[in-house]
Amino acid sequence: MIMNNISDKKFGEIVDELDKKIIKVLETDIPLTLNPYQKIAEDLNIDRAELLTRLQKLKERKILKRISAILHHRDSGYQANGMFVCHFSEQEIDQLGKEISKLEAVSHCYQRQTYQNWPYNFYAMMHAKNKEELEKKVNQLVEKYKIEDYQILYSTEELKKTSMKYFGCGVK
Amino acid sequence: MEKIDKKILDRLQTGLKLEASPFQKIAAELGIEAEELLRRIKKLKKEGYIRRLGGIFRSSRLGYKSTLVALKVEEKNFYQVAEIINQHSGVTHNYRRDHQLNLWFTLSTTSELEQDNFLAQIKALPGVKELYQLPKEKFFKLNVFFKMEEEAGDDHE
């Protein structure tokens, strides 16, 4: 068993105990009722107004992105999910990254660290209804930007997909 | 899927308002009753279209360190290695990919030290031939919006 020790002290500087409790509740599902925040506030023994103020503050501090639905995208009609990787020079990567990330088929787009045996610094996660459609999009992309050395790594098996659970122990 | 369900999925991905009755507001936008909206959301969850309806947080703002990790694992040890990786609660995504780097996962830890320690242990597992730590150096896009309504146009960004 691999063990991890997580210091609780660190989070104390970022969020207080009540914020932590709120985050723990919201990292699961919100109640599907007409007044979901009322129900959450009651469970936490606080006023709804206080909960909403706290959430607003977490949002202002950019800790909370938003409260929304996360879809199972394979079940939602996107069957092909490929990670496109290539190498761009430092001079061109900002401009190309900006342009390529505008493509609708691209959901995530990052520059990452490279290694001698893995020289790709540009990553774009691409999604399409099927492999053919995805490859068509990649072809358009590599032709437009004259990319010669690239790879598409398809995900062929989902081994784990979950939401982050904060302030816990590293190992379940 | 009914058209209204696609509209609901699209709308729910853009975020709920931080106000007393967020579903009432969305229902009004979509021209249905709030009760019907809730009933449909429950159905979409049950059918597996919605994985979760809740808060999305920025782990980096909470002090977490994140990285993508790529491994080359021998087939005979593949699931054993995947299983050990998956036990870590900071591993949220783990995929097999059709490449010699055949296992890719994301890892969030409370410190760089914890990240290094965990990956050192993974690297030492039987069957692990290569391990690359691929932290992001620049961010261009993170969009988790999956458009359901085809005819709605492509101006959702």
TrEMBL record, chain A:
- Residues covered by the Siroheme decarboxylase NirL-like HTH domain: 19-64
* UniProt keyword annotations, A-Z: Coiled coil, DNA-binding, Lyase
Coiled-coil positions are: 86-151
Q: Does the keyword Disulfide bond apply?
A: no
Q: Which reaction does it catalyse?
A: siroheme + 2 H(+) = 12,18-didecarboxysiroheme + 2 CO2
Q: Where is the signal peptide?
A: none
Siroheme decarboxylase AsnC-like ligand binding domain segment(s): 76-160
Annotated pathway: Porphyrin-containing compound metabolism
Which EC class does it fall in? lyase
Membrane-spanning segments: none
Q: Does the UniProt entry include the keyword Acetylation?
A: no
The record's section on InterPro entries has: AsnC_trans_reg2, HTH-Siroheme_Decarb, NirdL-like_HTH, WH_DNA-bd_sf
GO molecular function annotation: DNA binding; lyase activity
Q: What is its EC number?
A: 4.1.1.111
Q: Which family does it belong to?
A: Belongs to the Ahb/Nir family.
- Cross-referenced PANTHER family, in alphabetical order? SIROHEME DECARBOXYLASE NIRL SUBUNIT (PTHR43413:SF1), TRANSCRIPTIONAL REGULATOR, ASNC FAMILY (PTHR43413)
Q: What is this protein called?
A: siroheme decarboxylase
Which species is this record about? Answer: Halanaerobium congolense
From TrEMBL, chain B:
Instruction: Cite the GO molecular-function annotations of the record.
Output: DNA binding; lyase activity
Domain Siroheme decarboxylase AsnC-like ligand binding positions: 61-141
- Which EC numbers does the record give? 4.1.1.111
Domain Siroheme decarboxylase NirL-like HTH span(s) in chain numbering: 5-51
The UniProt catalytic activity note for this protein reads: siroheme + 2 H(+) = 12,18-didecarboxysiroheme + 2 CO2
Q: Which UniProt keywords apply?
A: DNA-binding, Lyase
Q: Which Pfam families match?
A: AsnC_trans_reg2 (PF17805), NirdL-like_HTH (PF22451)
**UniProt-listed InterPro entries:** AsnC_trans_reg2, HTH-Siroheme_Decarb, NirdL-like_HTH, WH-like_DNA-bd_sf, WH_DNA-bd_sf
Q: In which pathway does it act?
A: Porphyrin-containing compound metabolism
Q: Which SUPFAM superfamilies match?
A: Winged helix' DNA-binding domain
UniProt lists the family membership as follows: Belongs to the Ahb/Nir family.
- PANTHER family per the UniProt record, alphabetical: SIROHEME DECARBOXYLASE NIRL SUBUNIT, TRANSCRIPTIONAL REGULATOR, ASNC FAMILY
What's the protein name? siroheme decarboxylase
According to its UniProt entry, this protein's organism is: Halanaerobium congolense
